[in-house]
Design a protein that fits this description.
Helix content is about 55%, strand content about 10%. It has about 475 residues and is α+β, with helices and mostly antiparallel strands.
């Protein structure tokens, strides 16, 4: 069970914020609410916008629930704005925009599920309280009736918000049975809000974790992404693992609990991984920096960087443990898992690349690299260099202060070396001193495999020695060509 990482506001503070919430609603919302009331329909602000307002967060997108059916919602919205859209009529939702204000209005719901595909069998409801009962957690089951500004909280969500508690409004077994993805949302909200999952709710998650298998990979992925972008990621991940949900989402993560890291004898690889994730997050930059946070790729790479250790674990003579080539195995495992979760190709490629390279720096502290090795490090990292800097630094979790300082100093030195080379040459876009057209002209050859071989030879020389200049490059090219013909 995950514990709260921050002290939530008191109930009195939340109530004072509530008064401000009602006063701060845009006047356009009042006009919309009055039109629904005049037509004999209820309208209420519901869910996340209500919760976030109590937490002092504003939202440009406002969610409403209404007694009106979709056709009537659309008719009333068109009186309020010309910009309306049918975003899910079969589910009872119609959207609209007025200036910068975006609203989504959904008919009171009483969903039923077929138990197999997880697709809701839509059943429209007749009461706000019934609609709130079918929501995931009590902190999301609060509403404000409009235009009367009556606060509706049938499941005491405000007290749970003040206590930093995640609890289902109805029996959690029933709630999770209706939609197993709500178990993932519990872990996600633990990360986003830093809240504790109520014991009964958590027990139901553990008992029903295997039900997550019937949820589509895309829906699971979306919740995982939100979890990874939260402010208390460690709590969210711990909830996944401790409940057993991770076995159906990221089985590689709980597998790390059994593995002892040879560099960190005081902790297993699982705890090491959670620490690396936290430290990587701490190294993200502001919006104007090279790795603006929250950065999903960096966080996923930190999470998956050591998943290759379990399959590569070997007991060595004398009682030692090794994980040779775990970065190679782990990179392939990371790509396979992310593809199974339907992540996009760019994310999969970037995370796979970072996992593959995360050990490249090891050894620099003992033997300072040549300029050639530094160039190769930059070129191999490519567009992921700044993330690799942060992943490598975050991977140091030793309690040995002297060792930690030595590694930090060594990486400072490497970054300084990279900066120096950038001033001297285009180290981020290294290419031979001669291009393909020049190679063909100098050697008198036509396009073909030999041009590629010559280009590769010159690129190796450029990596090894830095910029050669056209004259020396030409001489080196001719010498290589003659050696081939000898």
């Amino acid at each position: 069970m995950t514990a709260a990482s921050a002290t939530p506001p008191t109930l009195d503070v939340l109530r004072r914020r509530a008064a401000g919430l009602w006063a701060a609603l845009p006047p356009e919302i009042g006009a919309l609410a009055q039109s629904f009331a005049d037509a004999g329909h209820e309208l209420a602000l519901v869910g996340g916008p209500v919760r976030d307002a109590f937490l002092g967060r504003s939202s440009a997108d406002l969610d409403f629930a209404s007694s009106a059916r979709p056709d009537e919602i659309e008719r009333l919205l068109k009186r309020w704005t010309r910009a309306t859209w049918d975003m899910g009529r079969e589910f009872g939702t119609i959207g609209g925009r007025r200036g910068d204000l975006v609203v989504e209005i959904t008919t009171y719901r009483a969903d039923e599920y077929d138990g197999e595909t997880r697709k809701p069998v839509v059943a429209f409801g007749d009461s706000l309280e019934g609609d709130l009962a079918r929501r995931d957690f009590t902190v999301n089951s609060m509403a404000v009736r409009l235009p009367s500004m009556e606060f509706v909280d049938p499941f005491d969500g405000l007290s749970d918000l003040a206590g930093g508690l995640l609890r289902t409004p109805i029996d959690p077994a029933v709630s999770f049975g209706d939609d197993p993805l709500r178990m993932m949302r519990a872990a996600r909200f633990a990360s986003q809000l830093g809240f504790e999952i109520e014991p009964g709710t958590f027990s139901a998650m553990a008992e029903m974790a295997d039900r997550l298998a019937i949820v589509s990979a895309e829906r699971v992925r979306d919740e995982l992404v939100k979890l990874m972008l939260g402010r208390s990621v460690r709590e969210g991940l711990a909830a996944l693992v401790d409940s057993g949900l991770s076995a159906h989402v990221l089985p590689e993560l709980p597998a790390l609990k059994l593995e002892v890291d040879e560099h960190h004898h005081h902790k297993d690889v699982y705890e090491h991984t959670l620490t690396v994730v936290e430290q990587a997050i701490a190294l993200e930059t502001p919006a104007e920096g090279p790795v603006p946070g929250p950065d999903l790729v960096l966080r996923l790479a930190a999470l998956l960087h050591d998943i290759g250790k379990p399959p590569t674990k070997r007991l060595e003579p004398g009682g030692g443990v090794s994980f040779h080539h775990h970065e190679v195995v782990g990179a392939k495992m990371a790509a396979k898992r992310l593809k199974a979760l339907r992540f996009d190709k760019d994310t999969v490629k970037a995370v796979e690349h970072l996992v593959f390279l995360h050990l490249r720096f090891h050894g620099y502290a003992d033997a300072r690299w040549s300029d050639s090795a530094v160039r190769r490090y930059v070129v191999d990292a490519g567009a992921e260099l700044e993330r690799l800097h942060r992943l490598t630094r975050a991977d140091v979790t030793t309690r040995n202060r002297r060792k930690a300082e030595r590694l930090s100093f060594a990486y400072d030195d490497l970054e300084h070396r990279i900066a120096e080379l950038r001033e001297q040459e285009e180290v981020d876009a290294i290419r031979p001193d001669l291009d393909g057209t020049q190679i063909m002209a100098i050697l008198g050859i036509a396009p073909g495999r030999e041009v590629g071989q010559a280009y590769k030879h010159l690129l190796e020389l450029r990596m090894e020695h830095g910029p050669l200049g056209e004259e020396r490059a030409t001489a080196e090219l001719r010498a290589w060509w003659e050696s081939r013909e000898a």
